[in-house]
Structures are given as structure tokens and as C-alpha cells.
Design brief:
Layout lengths: L4 H32 L2 H32 L3 H33 L6 H6 L2 H21 L2 H31 L4 H42 L1
Helix pairs in contact: 1-2, 1-3, 1-5, 2-3, 3-7, 5-6, 5-7, 6-7
Length: 221
């Protein structure tokens, strides 16, 4: 069966969405494993990394084939560029989920609830999940407004991350025995902050692609 450019583009779009939902699931499970100290769930995330890597390679190879077969220009070229960059950022998000899960498997450390609260861990995680919702809507519905909602939320993550060191220093002075806990949660907070940056990158790529398509349709009218 001969697959034309439009069908191949639709297939790439579906694969990109599959990668998005898979990587969101990986971070959700990794965070749950961290909060509940569930090593079995952490192992599941680690094992699923193979599937993430396989899908990453498939998308990359399919994009290369599209470029070779159809020599895309204008909107089609921007689409391929956006998919490649989004895929790269999603794979890095999955890497952070993998890293969080490795913490759980390799270290038998439970985090005290008061540390999670003082470091605004729940707020940081819920903000990330809202950012994921924004880019999911933006990707599915080609909604630039949803993509732009990410930028303000990323500033929340930056602020929590910036405040974390001083809070940890204060907590250790009160109770030096929690140093292992603080080092662990500090590592996860840093990963969350990087995930926020990657989601922001994805939002920018979605806007880059959608704006080009909107301009194309305006020219046709």
C-alpha cells in the first residue's frame, strides 16, 4: 500500500501524541513511587523506559523518512521540525522520570511529610501536571492559547526551586539527621524544575508550528 505525505504526517502526529501521553504517565508513576516509596512502581517506570526509547527512535526514523521522501517545505517542514524537537524534549522528560525512579530503587529513604510541605512539593507537582494538560490540549486541538498558559506556570516552578536551598538549609539546622532526606528531595525538585523547562520548550514548538498553519490559512482567504 502506498502511503502519501498526508497519511504519513497523520501517522507522525499520532505517534507524537502517543509519546506525549507515555511520558506524562512515566512522570506520574515516578512521582507516586517517590511519595509512597513504592519500589515496585519505580521498577515499572524503569522497565517502561525501553518502550519510551523504542518510540523515540521510531518517531525520529519516520521523520527522517518523511524528509527524504517528500522534501517538505513551509508548513510541512515546520511540522517535522516541531515533531522532532518535541520528541527530543519528551524523551528527556522520561529520562527524569527514570532518574526519580532510580532514587527509589537505589535508596531506602522515606521523606518526612513536613519536608514535602515546607518545600511546596505538592504545589510543584500539581503545577507540572497542569502544564502537561495545557500542552496536551494545545497539541490535540492546535490551541495556541493553551500552549501559552505554560509560561506563567513555569515561573511558579522556578520560584519554588529557587527557594528550596534556603528552606533545606534551615531544616537541616533544626534536625541534622534529615540530611539524606533533604538531599533526595532536592534532587527531585531539580528534576521537576528541568521538566518544567522542557514542557515550556514543547509549548514553544507547538506555537511555532500552529502559528505557521494559521498564517497559511489566512493567506488562502
Amino acid at each position: 500500500m502506498v502511503i502519501n505525505a498526508e497519511q504519513q504526517r497523520a501517522s507522525l502526529n499520532e505517534a507524537g501524541f502517543e509519546m506525549l501521553t507515555l511520558c506524562i504517565s512515566q512522570l506520574e508513576k515516578a512521582t507516586e513511587a517517590f511519595l509512597t516509596h513504592d519500589s515496585d512502581l519505580a521498577e515499572e517506570v524503569i522497565n517502561t523506559e525501553t518502550r519510551v526509547n523504542a518510540l523515540d527512535l521510531k518517531i525520529e526514523n519516520d521523520c527522517e523518512k518523511f524528509l527524504a521522501l517528500y522534501n517538505p517545505v513551509a508548513i510541512d517542514l515546520r511540522f517535522i521540525m516541531a515533531i522532532l524537537k518535541i520528541n527530543f524534549d519528551l524523551e528527556r522528560i522520561a529520562d527524569h522520570a527514570y532518574g526519580i525512579s532510580k532514587y527509589i530503587v537505589d535508596q531506602d529513604i522515606k521523606i518526612a511529610p513536613h519536608l514535602l510541605k515546607s518545600l511546596e512539593f505538592e504545589k510543584m507537582y500539581s503545577t507540572i501536571m497542569m502544564m502537561f494538560e495545557n500542552i496536551t490540549v494545545a497539541y490535540e486541538e492546535k490551541d495556541v492559547k493553551s500552549a501559552r498558559k505554560v509560561f506563567k506556570k513555569d515561573k511558579i516552578l522556578d520560584k519554588i526551586n529557587a527557594n528550596s536551598f534556603a528552606i533545606i538549609e534551615k531544616e537541616i539546622k533544626k534536625d541534622p539527621s534529615i540530611i539524606d532526606q533533604t538531599l533526595l528531595i532536592f534532587g527531585v525538585i531539580k528534576k521537576f524544575e528541568r521538566v518544567g523547562d522542557l514542557i515550556k520548550n514543547i509549548a514553544e514548538e507547538i506555537i511555532f508550528y500552529i502559528d505557521a498553519e494559521v498564517l497559511k490559512h489566512k493567506r488562502k482567504k
